[in-house]
Amino acid sequence: EVPKSEFVALRNAMASTSAEADNMIKAIRSLYRFAIEIGHCSENPALSIARIHKPKGGAVAWNADDIAQYKKSHPPGTMAHLYHTLLMFTGCRIGDAIWLGRNQEVKREGQVWLKWQPRKTGSAIVEIPMLPPLFDATRAQVVQGPTYMLNEHGKPFKSSDTLRTRFARWCASAGLEGKSSHGIRKALAEILSEAE
Questions:
Q1: Beta partners for residue 129, in sequence order
Q2: What is the pLDDT of residues 115-165, one digit of tens each?
Q3: What pairs with residue 108 in β-bridges?
Q4: What's the rounded Cα separation, in Å, for the pair 28 and 77?
Q5: Distance CA 74, CA 184 (A)
Q6: Is the pTM of this model over 0.85?
Q7: Helix (H, G, I), strand (E, B) or coil at 55
Q8: Measured distance CA(62)–CA(153) in Å, rounded
Q9: Cα dihedral angle (146, 149, 153, 154), rounded to 10 degrees?
Q10: DSSP-assigned letters across all residues of 131-163
Q11: From CA 141, how far away is CA 106, in angstroms rounded?
């Protein structure tokens, strides 16, 4: 029996974390839907409460100059180069990049392919050929491990966040502050759409 105005006030009190405020209202809507379904109440006071979060536009796609500048700073044989190449030639998310490795390689008619099930719920299995730049980048590493991406101790990264932090440093050292892995995925999507 909470009035709509109370939920609006609660949302507004969380305005500094607007995405969380919107998620809270979304959860309340779901709770009331369930309560109506089982007969505990007859209306959903959170149904018409507007969202307050304004997206900032997301990651900025890399352009050809960004890619060239990054590659100049991080030549083949470096882990930084391998990571960039892995993203450009697979389009994988950072959550998959931390565990992809030779266990996901399969041979088809003499060609090495990558086959993996992305960790994001609902994603389809990915099967792509390893084009020469990616294959060469994976073989150029002095230290090989169970995953392609290894930290400075030759161990797999423990989480997406640790690799994200490392990538931010690689970008900064190349003079590309504020660039992200997701921006590379956006660039890849643009390149592929223009190639059709």
A1: 113
A2: 999 998 889 999 999 999 999 999 998 888 999 999 999 999 999 999 999
A3: 111
A4: 51
A5: 15
A6: no
A7: coil
A8: 29
A9: 30
A10: -HHHHHHHHS-SS--SSS-B-TTSSB-SSHHHH
A11: 20
